[in-house]
Design brief:
Helix content: 25-40%
Number of helices: 16
Distance between the termini: 41 Å
Radius of gyration: 24 Å
Structural class: alpha+beta
Largest sheet: 11 strands, mixed
Low-confidence stretches: 1-34
Oligomer: single chain
């Protein structure tokens, strides 16, 4: 109950966004009513820079404007700009047959030569995209004719189609919109071939998207999307309740209190996806106390995940037993969860040489067992969990100091390894598990620094590299099992809850569903009853 009161006392400040019905075509007219051919989508900030080859823009908006070679679906890869493709027996050559008669919204032809121009622009800024393993494995690429695009790799790389299918950077912009064939320093216009085109932007107020009449696929039923900027979460929730909003959508955009409020409210529906990512605490194995695996395992047993699930998320985010949910590809490898058991935690700490003093604090060689937990001060959720764990760990004799820092400082310290314990979230689908594991081999986030104290770090990294280049599905699954088992037994991560995508919507909305990425709002599939 204490944990629940902490959350109720300070509502989540994570941003929310949603869709409002509207009658006009400008921001000021949005509250005048709703038409069946337009929606108003509410975001907490401006659409920003929608250059598809960089990372500053809102991903939902980039998904509206641009296409990629392939689409990632719940059934696997599907044709997009490429209507078919073949992979050589050695896994090093991908040949894409480009969909004929496709044009950008400015009328420019989108063929293999336009795709090569986009690859040229992306690779000109290669150092910006090193988080993608494919950037170091693509040897060369070519447009062998108008409708054939070929990629040659130096080694096989099974996640290539995934990296080509996610929102950025391998999305295609009209070469005419580039600056002298380049995108690294910006673009002249946001011109893609997606279902919508951008009509107007008033910074920090609204943006208007209209159906792209040249779109190669089935045209969206909703003709106009007006994106209003409303920073305050509670204002957006109130708009939903008043009937000004049709849909609020996103894993961090809908808090647990809103879900509870609308779950049984007449005229509204709540939707939750399968697990998409994992909320976790990363333990730095290079720090004195945490270099001992017994201490890390004791922390696993001392963490009451069910209480966190119930108290912070009202059971919406389920307790996480492993680094990735069993529904994530390759992740269901039969790992035994660490159960919540204070007595087991105490036994492990005793085995590690810690003695409980009269003051209730554990010490070893005269040094108290003190740990620091770093969290993002912008997240009320992380603050509440931190305070809960501070009280919980004290039960076993551990002093936990908690510290919140603003987001950039928090991320900088995480990346550089300046932490004992730190909150993190896995990359999420479709990046999990392959991309997030690949990122552990270099200082991308905090994983690399946290794992430096592991005796089997080199073995884990070697297995991850083999996973990415294996052409055998059987071998790949065995390697995943090895890596996930090692990380689990090494107790580097305390999985807390599985995050899911969330939506609350007025019952007149039809066609709502969740895609295989956290960041896409399925505008093109929506309609009104």
């Amino acid at each position: 109950m204490r944990l629940k009161r902490l959350v109720c006392a300070a509502l989540l400040t994570v941003s929310a966004f949603g869709i409002l019905g509207c009658a006009g075509t400008t921001g000021d007219q949005a509250s005048q009513g709703a038409k069946s051919d337009q929606l108003t989508f509410v975001n907490f900030r401006d659409v920003r820079d929608l250059n598809p080859h960089l990372y500053a823009g809102e991903m939902y908006a980039q998904e509206m404007l641009y296409d990629t070679l392939v689409e990632i679906t719940d059934k696997g890869y599907a044709p997009a700009l490429a209507e078919s493709w073949t992979i050589s027996d050695d896994g090093q050559t991908y040949t894409f047959k480009i969909r004929p008669n496709v044009k950008f919204s400015d009328g420019e032809v989108l063929d293999a030569h336009a795709i090569k121009a986009n690859f040229d622009a992306i690779f000109e800024n290669k150092s910006r995209h090193t988080w993608l393993e494919s950037m170091s494995l693509i040897d060369n690429y070519e447009a062998t004719d108008d409708l054939t695009f070929v990629i040659h790799l130096t080694k096989p790389y099974y996640p290539l189609l995934t990296e080509l299918g996610v929102t950025r950077p391998f999305a295609m912009i009209s070469p005419k919109a580039m600056k002298n064939g380049s995108t690294k320093d910006g673009v002249n216009e946001y011109i893609g071939s997606g279902p919508y085109k951008l009509k107007e932007v008033v910074t920090d107020k609204y943006a208007i998207f209209e159906v792209n009449d040249l779109y190669w696929g089935e045209k969206p039923k909703i003709k106009t999307i007006l994106v209003k900027v409303i920073p305050d979460n509670q204002t957006r929730i109130l708009a939903l309740e008043k009937g000004e909003v049709d849909l609020i959508f996103g894993k961090n955009m809908v808090d647990a209190d809103a879900i509870r409020k609308f779950k049984d409210q007449k005229g509204f529906s709540v939707a939750l996806s399968d697990p998409m990512s994992t909320r976790e605490i990363v333990l730095n194995t290079t720090k004195a106390h945490l270099s001992d695996k017994l201490v890390r395992q004791a922390l696993q047993h001392a963490t009451n995940k069910q209480a966190i699930s119930d108290g912070v998320f009202y059971g919406i985010e389920k307790p996480a037993d492993t680094l990735y949910a069993p529904t994530v590809p390759y992740a269901n490898v039969g790992l035994k969860p660490y159960d919540y058991n204070v007595d087991t935690a105490k036994t492990l700490l005793s085995s590690a040489g810690y003695v409980l003093g009269a003051d209730g604090i554990l010490t070893k060689d005269g040094t108290p067992l003190e740990l620091n937990l770093l969290y993002n001060s912008d997240s009320v959720t992380e603050k509440a969990i931190s305070e809960f764990l501070q009280a919980e760990y004290k039960k076993v004799g551990i002093i936990l100091h908690i510290k919140g820092e603003e987001e950039q400082s928090y991320r900088d310290n995480m990346k550089s390894g300046n932490f004992d314990m730190v909150f993190n979230i896995s990359w999420g689908l479709p990046y999990d598990p392959q991309s997030s594991l690949a990122g552990m081999r270099k200082p991308v986030y905090g994983d690399y620094a946290a794992q430096q104290g592991l005796e089997d770090k080199a073995d884990i990294d070697e297995a991850i590299t083999k996973i990415l280049t294996s052409t055998s599905e059987t071998e790949r699954q065995e390697l995943y099992k090895f890596v996930l088992t090692r990380l689990h037994e090494d107790a580097v991560y305390i999985p807390l809850t599985y995050e899911n995508n969330k939506a609350i919507y007025n019952n007149r909305v039809e066609g709502l569903h969740f895609t295989q990425t956290l960041y896409e709002v399925p505008f093109k599939d929506l309609s009104f009853k």
